[in-house]
Task: structure prediction
Amino acid sequence: MAGLDDYFVGERVLVSVTAGQRAAYVVPEAFLLRRFGVSYVRLKNGAEVTVQPGLMVEGGREILAGLTDGDVVVTP
Result:
């Protein structure tokens, strides 16, 4: 390309690329319980719901499945 300097040719750089987004709930890591390899959370009504945890993100861990709108997660 015309006018493109070659200063960084052969150099290493750190790059972050957002490949996409997905809808997920985020709960504090301390709210996520594990028993026999199964992850679950406790709801305000006392129920224990099995969840599918995702990646660690700022503020906690993604919950990809198991929760629905209106669920209130409480500390164990």
Summary: The chain is about 0% helix and 40% strand. Residues 25-74 form one domain.
